[in-house]
């Protein structure tokens, strides 16, 4: 009756089923049938797991063809999971049983290819154990030993079960190597462990191994006792292949013990088996024993018949061994080819990685180079900019009067010339004002040079704000200054000069720490028709300044006024030569 799909947790049920498989096969099979009724309610993966188990149960029952169909069906459903390894390895078991060694090796190499992808170390260990078991079934002794050893090496001290299973295969290997005493000891070790830990099926396998070891050691009674115990165990699991194998071993043991009736009884199980390749070896053994038994009983005709059958199965075994060897060699060749290809790919990959590393290094170097270059250029740029700023600063400083901060003589004259050319080229006017502080020597002498400096700065400060943008204000001598007015006529110059004079006179000197009056004399000259440069204007303004000095100082004189009185000018020059303070 189908279980209620809604109420059942299939994952749990499948886990339980897989557990039962090792401990109680009949119950596991009952559970399998129950779950099968709910097959379509399961996920694809759950269906796959169920089919893997179903395939396994077919193998236990000796239905290898059915097992293969089921397991191949499960492959797609359990894709990308560790169950795929199980499916492949059980398929290999079925192929081996069907003596299809070629396909057995194909699926074995597929499962082998999956091992590397298995991350879980426990599953990986179990996978190696499965392979050991398959190679054992194939009779490839070295591989049994090698995979069992791999599994053992992956086990930690706590993984006693897997250590024992590995030992089981290693003992099978010892048996193959005919190291019977050693094989018996290892079989016993594994048997004791599995029996006491609730893994009866494996304990029966070990028991059979113990029996076979004793048989080969010619300890026949002990062999019989052990084999009978193993037989009982296998029967409880209905493990047909192993049951028949034990019957065959028992015929050998009883024959050695000369218990003819028992020989015949156990031989019957084997001789009545269908003509299936998986029974060839067993039949060969049993017919050989029967031939011997009949010969001993002097029933030569019977003995001859059995002997002929023995020969027949011997030939089959020989052929089978040949097939196994060929299949094994073909598989090995393929594997070697594969690993050669993998090595080649690995080498290519190494080359690629090396090339990438070189490229990365080149890139890093280039990056470093660019960084250094850009950094260098940036640094150079900064240096240049700083240099330019310094240069400008020095140039500015070279043009400035250090004490008052206005243009010095050279810069004032140069700028004045440029402005003069510009203005006159446009038909504009130009006016030059020269002024000189009066009796400045007295200030220095009376109050010291510091006060003289203070007075010079104060005069400049008081006039700077009054001078238009575009006009030129320069210190052209110790206490002598020039104001150049482009686009201004003499009238305008007079106006400006008068304002400047008044401002200088109004300077409050008490902040210098002394009380005195500052005055200045001004000479003004406007543009005349013949003027081609600034020089004649300067010259005329200078003359006017002298006139102002002569007129009693603190005055503004224009050049045109002096022309009115040539005589006055002559007097002036004389006066300038000997000023009276
Ligand atoms: N403190 C100071 N004095 C200066 C500076 N440059 C020139 N002098 C002085 O200015 C004085 C100019 O004197 P003079 O040329 O005789 O003219 P003055 O005393 O002003 O008399 P007049 O021009 O005739 O009114 C000198 O004593 C110079 O030493 C300066 O930068 N600082």
Automatic annotation (TrEMBL):
<protein>
    <recommendedName>
        <fullName>diguanylate cyclase</fullName>
        <ecNumber>2.7.7.65</ecNumber>
    </recommendedName>
</protein>
<dbReference type="InterPro" id="IPR029787">
    <property type="entry name" value="Nucleotide_cyclase"/>
</dbReference>
<dbReference type="Pfam" id="PF00990">
    <property type="entry name" value="GGDEF"/>
</dbReference>
<keyword id="KW-1133">Transmembrane helix</keyword>
<keyword id="KW-0472">Membrane</keyword>
<feature type="transmembrane region" description="Helical">
    <location>
        <begin position="366"/>
        <end position="387"/>
    </location>
</feature>
<keyword id="KW-0175">Coiled coil</keyword>
<dbReference type="GO" id="GO:0043709">
    <property type="term" value="P:cell adhesion involved in single-species biofilm formation"/>
</dbReference>
<dbReference type="GO" id="GO:0005886">
    <property type="term" value="C:plasma membrane"/>
</dbReference>
<dbReference type="GO" id="GO:0052621">
    <property type="term" value="F:diguanylate cyclase activity"/>
</dbReference>
<feature type="domain" description="GGDEF">
    <location>
        <begin position="428"/>
        <end position="561"/>
    </location>
</feature>
<dbReference type="InterPro" id="IPR050469">
    <property type="entry name" value="Diguanylate_Cyclase"/>
</dbReference>
<dbReference type="InterPro" id="IPR043128">
    <property type="entry name" value="Rev_trsase/Diguanyl_cyclase"/>
</dbReference>
<dbReference type="GO" id="GO:1902201">
    <property type="term" value="P:negative regulation of bacterial-type flagellum-dependent cell motility"/>
</dbReference>
<dbReference type="InterPro" id="IPR000160">
    <property type="entry name" value="GGDEF_dom"/>
</dbReference>
<dbReference type="InterPro" id="IPR011990">
    <property type="entry name" value="TPR-like_helical_dom_sf"/>
</dbReference>
<feature type="coiled-coil region">
    <location>
        <begin position="290"/>
        <end position="355"/>
    </location>
</feature>
<keyword id="KW-0812">Transmembrane</keyword>
């Amino acid at each position: 009756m189908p279980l209620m799909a809604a109420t059942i947790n299939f994952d749990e049920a499948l886990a339980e089923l897989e557990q039962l498989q090792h401990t109680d096969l009949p119950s596991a099979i009952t559970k399998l049938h129950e779950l099968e009724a709910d097959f379509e309610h399961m996920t694809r993966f759950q269906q796959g797991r169920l089919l893997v188990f179903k395939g396994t149960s077919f193998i236990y029952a000796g239905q290898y063809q059915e097992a293969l169909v089921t397991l191949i069906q499960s492959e797609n459903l359990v894709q990308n999971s560790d169950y795929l390894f199980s499916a492949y390895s059980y398929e290999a078991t079925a192929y081996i049983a069907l003596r299809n060694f070629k396909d057995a090796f194909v699926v074995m190499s597929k499962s082998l290819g999956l091992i590397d992808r298995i991350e879980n170390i426990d599953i990986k260990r179990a996978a190696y154990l499965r392979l050991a078991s398959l190679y054992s079934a194939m009779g490839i002794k070295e591989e049994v030993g090698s995979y069992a050893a791999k599994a053992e090496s992956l086990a930690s001290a706590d993984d006693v079960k897997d250590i024992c299973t590995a030992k089981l295969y290693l003992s099978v290997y010892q048996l193959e190597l005919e190291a019977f005493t050693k094989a018996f000891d290892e079989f016993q070790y594994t048997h004791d462990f599995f029996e006491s830990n609730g893994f009866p099926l494996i304990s029966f396998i070990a028991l059979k191994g113990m029996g076979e070891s004793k048989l080969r050691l010619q300890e026949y009674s002990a062999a019989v006792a052990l084999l009978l115990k193993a037989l009982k165990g296998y029967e409880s699991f209905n493990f047909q292949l192993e049951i028949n194998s034990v019957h065959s071993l028992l015929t050998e043991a009883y024959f050695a013990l000369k218990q003819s009736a028992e020989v015949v009884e156990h031989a019957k199980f084997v001789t009545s088996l269908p003509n299936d390749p998986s029974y060839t070896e067993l039949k060969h053994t049993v017919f050989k024993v029967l031939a011997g038994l009949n010969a001993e009983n002097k029933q030569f005709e019977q003995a001859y018949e059995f002997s002929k059958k023995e020969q027949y199965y011997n030939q089959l075994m020989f052929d089978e061994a040949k097939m196994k060897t060929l299949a094994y060699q073909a598989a090995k060749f393929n594997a070697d080819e594969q690993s050669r290809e993998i090595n080649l790919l690995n080498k290519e990959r190494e080359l690629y990685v090396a090339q990438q590393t070189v490229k990365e290094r080149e890139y890093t170097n280039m990056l470093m180079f660019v960084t250094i270059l850009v950094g260098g250029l940036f640094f150079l740029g900064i240096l240049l900019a700083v240099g330019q700023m310094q240069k400008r600063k020095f140039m500015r400083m070279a043009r400035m009067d250090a004490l008052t901060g206005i243009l010095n003589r050279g810069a004032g004259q140069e700028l004045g010339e440029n402005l003069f050319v510009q203005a006159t080229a446009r038909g504009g006017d130009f006016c030059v004002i020269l002024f000189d502080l009066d009796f400045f020597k007295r200030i220095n002498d009376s109050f010291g040079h510091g006060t003289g400096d203070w007075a010079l700065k104060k005069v400049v400060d008081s006039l700077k704000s009054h001078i238009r943008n575009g006009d030129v204000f320069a210190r052209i001598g110790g206490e002598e200054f020039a104001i150049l007015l482009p686009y201004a006529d003499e009238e305008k110059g007079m106006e400006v000069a008068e304002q400047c004079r008044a401002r200088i006179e109004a300077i409050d000197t008490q902040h210098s720490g002394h009380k005195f009056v500052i005055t200045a004399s001004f000479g003004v000259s406007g543009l005349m028709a013949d003027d081609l440069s600034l020089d004649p204007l300067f010259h005329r303004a200078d003359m006017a300044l002298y006139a102002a000095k002569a007129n009693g100082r603190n005055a503004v004189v224009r050049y045109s006024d002096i022309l009115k009185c040539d005589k006055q000018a002559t007097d002036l020059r004389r006066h300038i030569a000997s000023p009276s303070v």
